[in-house]
């Protein structure tokens, strides 16, 4: 039996399901094929569960610091990690049911199985019939869509010789399933995942060592942010070994793990309870039938044009499987644009330098646009304004005054090139900088907005004033 659709989406993550919703809003008969659960990595193994654990870590840390706010807790503060995990599961469950409801509301058919693209066949002269294979013995379903959207996401990269076993060596997915906290953990990779886990586990009382290959953690962020964040994380007792590579063949597994890493010319031995591997993610491009098409893959990712069309013009691809900024909000926007293009609209392309990036550690960090070094390398003559949270009343009231906002502007045009923040609630504050970038605002235009007092957002306004040396409070 075959069923016909205008659009079939492979992958029900934040890219895939958002695309399906927009397609259905625009009148396309739409289906999603998802082998696991709607919501994808973001909802089940990434953004949402990790933020739920980070929030519990924050409450635990703040409760331990309660006396500095004048609140005396006489009995010991105890961490019940089982309850922490239960809370996380409940949040995932609520959101998962929400996504399922959205599919029903949009009259989007959901197939729970593995979808693969077939080559030209009796069903269609073009590659693109989708065969859906189920976990049980049920016969495959064949669906014949007019268009396909690949939103198959990514999986963690591995380090040869250090296979994730879920026991001693974990990836971020396995770490989310921990039933109890280890006493110590070595995190390989000081990128976004490594740093969020380092901050969270350290707040839960785990002894953390981060082994990072580059000379800075978060090597893609502005150096001022990486340095400040590292300094703040060191205050919690996190150790950083930089310019370092783990040496997999030195791993010894006894009561504890023992492993060496090379640091510049030296070798260091580390003892730990568990290892967490967080060295990036790679696109899911295998086992989906791409070999039956003319779709190009380069550097491990699917190649597309500005509207996310592959070389097969009726097959589109978005999100982590096309590389670029592997972020849920990017996948969502790409999915929406692809759906609009499939429906015959002419959507406005994404300007990737306007995409905010957030790190939910404590302190948080967030940015949009170029780093100062990237701006200089690209030939911009830059002017920079920076303003600290320490000079902000609300940050002092809040009890979190470490950090700053840094604005980089172009001397010639006055346009903002990049905004970099570290401090309280900056993962929310960055949206204003994102809007300013979309509107091509100059620092002066930002200062024409009136910032409520007292508010953390005043730091953004003061940083804009600081670009011309006109800040009031510092
Ligand atoms: P990443 O690319 O952010 O960082 C990987 C880090 O590992 C880099 O600093 C790199 O220098 C280092 N590295 C690579 N190989 C190494 C080795 N052999 N030894 C030591 N260090 C090594 O990748 P990550 O953290 O795994 O995150 C994957 C993706 O997920 C990223 O694109 C990230 O943006 C996204 N993500 C986003 C989040 C957010 O928006 N808050 C949260 C978590 C992940």
Helix content: 25-40%
Bulk shape: globular
What is the assigned CATH homologous superfamily of the largest domain? FAD/NAD(P)-binding domain
Largest sheet entry: 7 strands, mixed
CATH class membership of the largest domain: Alpha Beta
Can you lay out the helices and strands and say which pair or pack?
Layout: E1 2-10, H1 14-25, E2 30-34, H2 40-45, H3 47-64, H4 81-105, E3 109-112, E4 114-117, E5 130-133, E6 141-150, E7 154-156, E8 169-170, H5 172-176, E9 184-188, H6 192-203, E10 207-211, H7 223-235, E11 239-241, E12 244-253, E13 257-263, E14 266-272, E15 274-277, E16 281-283, E17 297-298, E18 301-302, E19 315-317, H8 328-342, E20 357-359, E21 364-369, H9 372-377, E22 382-388, H10 393-398, E23 404-410, E24 416-423, H11 426-438, H12 443-447, H13 458-466
Parallel strand pairs: 1-2, 1-6, 2-3, 6-19, 8-15, 9-10, 9-15, 10-11
Antiparallel strand pairs: 4-5, 5-6, 7-16, 12-13, 13-14, 17-18, 20-21, 21-24, 22-23, 23-24
Helix pairs in contact: 1-8, 3-4, 3-6
The protein binds 1,4-dihydronicotinamide adenine dinucleotide.
1,4-dihydronicotinamide adenine dinucleotide binds at residues 159, 188-194, 196, 211-214, 219, 245-246, 278-281, 326-327, 358-360.
Fill in the keyword field for this structure:
single chain, 474 residues, alpha/beta, FAD/NAD(P)-binding domain, Enolase-like, domain 1, 3 domains, five-stranded parallel sheet, 24 strands, binds 1,4-dihydronicotinamide adenine dinucleotide
């Amino acid at each position: 039996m075959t069923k016909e659709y205008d659009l079939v989406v492979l992958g029900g993550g934040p890219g895939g399901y958002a695309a399906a919703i927009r397609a259905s809003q625009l009148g396309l008969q739409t289906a999603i094929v998802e082998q696991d659960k709607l919501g994808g990595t973001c909802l089940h193994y990434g953004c949402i569960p990790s933020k739920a654990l980070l929030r519990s870590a924050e409450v635990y840390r703040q409760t331990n610091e309660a006396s500095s706010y004048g609140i005396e807790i006489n009995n010991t503060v105890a961490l019940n990690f089982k309850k922490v995990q239960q809370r996380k599961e409940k949040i995932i469950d609520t959101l998962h049911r929400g996504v399922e409801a959205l599919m029903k509301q949009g009259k989007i058919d959901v197939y729970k199985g593995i979808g693969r693209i077939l080559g030209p066949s009796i069903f269609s002269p073009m590659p693109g019939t989708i065969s859906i294979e189920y976990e049980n013995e049920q016969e495959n379903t064949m669906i014949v869509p007019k268009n396909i959207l690949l939103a198959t996401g990514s999986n963690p990269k591995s380090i040869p010789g250090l296979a994730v076993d879920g026991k001693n060596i974990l990836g971020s997915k396995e770490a989310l399933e921990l039933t109890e906290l280890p006493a110590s953990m070595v995190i390989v990779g000081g990128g976004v995942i490594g740093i969020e886990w380092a901050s969270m586990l350290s707040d839960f009382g785990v002894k953390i060592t981060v082994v990072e290959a580059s000379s800075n953690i978060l090597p893609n962020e502005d150096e001022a942010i990486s340095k400040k964040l590292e300094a703040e994380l060191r205050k919690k007792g996190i150790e950083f070994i930089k310019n370092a590579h783990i040496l997999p063949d030195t791993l010894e597994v006894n009561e504890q793990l023992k492993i060496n890493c090379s640091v510049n010319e030296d070798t260091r031995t580390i003892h730990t309870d568990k290892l967490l591997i967080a060295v990036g993610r790679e696109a899911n491009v295998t086992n989906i039938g791409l070999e039956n098409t003319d779709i190009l893959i380069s550097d491990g990712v699917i190649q597309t044009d500005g509207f996310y069309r592959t070389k097969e013009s009726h097959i589109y691809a978005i999100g982590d499987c096309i590389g670029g900024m592997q972020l849920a909000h990017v996948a969502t926007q790409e999915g929406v644009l692809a759906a609009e293009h499939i429906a015959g609209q002419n959507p406005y392309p994404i300007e990737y330098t306007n995409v905010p990036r957030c790190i939910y550690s404590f302190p948080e960090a967030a940015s949009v646009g170029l780093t100062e070094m990237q701006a200089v390398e690209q030939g911009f003559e830059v002017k920079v304004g920076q303003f600290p949270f320490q000079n902000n009343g609300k940050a002092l009231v809040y009890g979190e005054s470490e950090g700053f906002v840094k604005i980089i502007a172009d001397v010639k045009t006055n346009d903002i090139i990049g905004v970099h923040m570290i401090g309280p609630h900056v993962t929310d504050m960055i949206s204003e900088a994102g809007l300013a970038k979309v509107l091509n605002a100059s620092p002066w235009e930002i200062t024409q907005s009136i910032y409520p007092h007292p508010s953390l957002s005043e730091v953004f306004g003061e940083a804009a004033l600081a670009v011309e040396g006109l800040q009031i409070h510092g």
